[in-house]
Structure formats: structure tokens, C-alpha cells
Specification:
The protein has helices at 5-24, 99-106, 109-128, 133-136, 141-156, 175-247, 249-265, 279-284; strands at 25-28, 32-38, 41-46, 50-53, 59-65, 69-71, 76-79, 85-96, 161-173. By secondary structure, it is an alpha+beta fold. Among the domains are: 5-65, no CATH class; 68-179, Tetrahydropterin Synthase, Chain A (2-Layer Sandwich).
Length: 291
């Protein structure tokens, strides 16, 4: 096939026709919504998915997300009611409900995040300035979140969005405040530790003193009981001896003499010289004297 001027014109028309056809249709899927622009001016808003038509080379389509989106403003340093400085990192979840208003106001999500992020930080700063750090970390946190969201409600319509939720993701003390808080907590813990040690030592002294008193009382009672029992034993012994002596005085003298001799001689083999008339000789008579 020769490329004659006529053939070139036909090919050019086919190419232009193809571009015209492909440029005339576009698809909006389930996660998007579109705005048809003509020379930069909005002409039509499309919120339903499907195949759509636009004028080629004259109109263009801009797509916006129809899903739930995240907005994460830059963390900022803020002052609480107790004059403590904290770094607050908040975030929000929003949905584009009016694509035309959104496009006319901020054009795209990047610009929206920058502008509305400053609005969120301003609202957070204004609300938490009325609360202390203790309140921010307590059950009042939910109340604080609701107050922040109520303040922002008046701004969302002008951007064509709906703020679904706002949260303070993280709150960090500044380095200076962190050091001051740490030092104060350390001093308080040391004070409590010293107090507990002092109370422990005082209690230990009281326990030792009580134990010493109880020991003294117990020993005294034991000695008194021992003396009483010893006295009763001696009295009983003397009574038994007296009763025995009164029954048979001669036998009792003999028994005592035997005990005296046993204590004198013991179990050893030894010889003794006993003079006539001594105790043992009285009962044994003459005893052979060993040299």
C-alpha cells in the first residue's frame, strides 16, 4: 500500500477518531467520585459509579475519593491549664460529601490536609488549654474529644466534608517538662522510701523492746516456778525422810551409815584404817586392816 496523501489523511482521521472516542468516555469506580471540568470550570458532578461521557479535548475529569479518609496534622506544642507544655499529635477521619465544594475550596486532598489540619490544631489548642495534664489522661479525655469535634463542626461544611471522628493519638511532655516531672516523681518516691524506712525502724525497735520485755517476764516466771517446785520437792523429801526415820530409827541410822560409807569408799578397790568406835565399825565390827 502506497502512502498517498489521500491514505495519510484517512489514517490521520482514523487516529483522531480513535483519540476522540477514547477521550469521550471514562469510568468512575466504586471508590471514586468525579467532577467534569470544561476549561477548568466545573460542569458536572458524578457520584455514582459507571461509564461516563465528556467532550473530548474540551472537558476533563477530576477524581476524588469517596471512601473514609485520614487526616494527620503536624504535631504541635501546646500549653495546658496548669501551664505544662505538651506535644499533641492528633488525627481525624473524614469523608468528602460535597465534591464540588471541596474542589472549589481546596482542589485536592493535599491542600485540604494542610488547611484543615491547622484548623484541627487550633481547636485542640483552644480546648485542652482549659484542662490539666491529669484531666487529659483521665476519663475526661472523651469529653475533651467531643468538645474538639463540636468546635470543628462549623468549619467542615465550608470544605464540603464531614468529620467522622477526631482523636488525640499521642501526648508527650516536652523535654524540659519531662525532666521536671521526673525529678519531682523521684523526690516524692525518695521521700516515701525514707518515711517507710523510718516507720520500719521504729516498728522494729518496738518489736525488739516488746520481745525483750516478754523474755524477761518469761525467765522470771520460769525461775519463780522452778524455785517453788524445788522448795516443794525439798519439803516433800524432808517429810518422807522424817516419816521414814520415825518408823524405824535404828534402820534409818543404818541406812544413812551405809550411804556415808558408800560415798566414802566408792567403787574403787581401796583399803582404809578405821579406829574402834567409828561409824562403819559400829555395824561391821572388827574390819581387817590391810597394810
Amino acid at each position: 500500500m502506497k502512502f498517498t496523501p489521500r491514505n495519510l489523511i484517512i489514517l490521520l482521521l482514523i487516529f483522531v477518531g480513535f483519540l476522540t472516542f477514547t477521550g469521550a468516555f471514562f469510568i468512575v469506580n466504586e471508590t471514586k467520585q468525579a467532577i467534569v471540568l470544561q476549561f477548568g470550570d466545573p460542569r458536572k458532578v458524578i457520584t455514582k459509579p459507571g461509564l461516563q461521557f465528556k467532550i473530548p479535548f474540551i472537558q476533563d475529569a477530576v477524581f476524588l475519593d469517596s471512601r473514609l479518609l485520614n487526616l494527620d496534622p503536624q504535631p504541635e506544642e501546646m500549653i495546658l491549664s496548669d501551664q505544662k507544655r505538651i506535644i499533641v499529635d492528633s488525627f481525624a477521619r473524614y469523608k468528602i460529601t460535597d465534591p464540588l465544594k471541596f474542589f472549589q475550596t481546596v482542589r485536592n486532598e493535599i491542600t485540604f490536609s494542610d488547611r484543615f489540619g491547622r484548623i484541627i490544631n487550633a481547636a485542640v489548642r483552644g480546648v485542652i488549654a482549659q484542662y490539666s495534664l491529669t484531666s487529659l489522661l483521665s476519663d475526661q479525655r472523651i469529653k475533651i474529644m467531643n468538645e474538639i469535634q463540636n468546635q470543628i463542626k462549623g468549619n467542615e461544611a465550608s470544605f464540603g466534608v464531614e468529620i467522622i471522628d477526631i482523636r488525640i493519638g499521642r501526648t508527650d511532655l516536652t523535654e524540659q517538662v519531662s525532666n521536671n516531672v521526673y525529678q519531682r516523681m523521684r523526690s516524692e518516691r525518695e521521700k516515701e522510701a525514707n518515711l517507710l524506712r523510718a516507720e520500719g525502724e521504729e516498728l522494729s525497735k518496738e518489736i525488739r523492746a516488746s520481745a525483750d520485755r516478754q523474755q524477761t517476764v518469761i525467765i522470771a516466771e520460769a525461775e519463780r516456778t522452778s524455785s517453788i517446785l524445788k522448795g516443794e520437792g525439798d519439803a516433800l523429801k524432808n517429810k518422807i525422810l522424817a516419816d521414814a526415820y520415825s518408823l524405824d530409827e535404828e534402820f534409818f541410822d543404818f541406812l544413812r551409815t551405809m550411804q556415808a560409807c558408800r560415798e566414802t569408799f566408792g567403787d574403787t578397790e581401796m583399803s582404809m584404817v578405821i579406829a574402834p568406835g567409828q561409824v562403819c565399825e559400829k555395824f561391821f565390827g572388827e574390819i581387817e586392816i590391810n597394810n
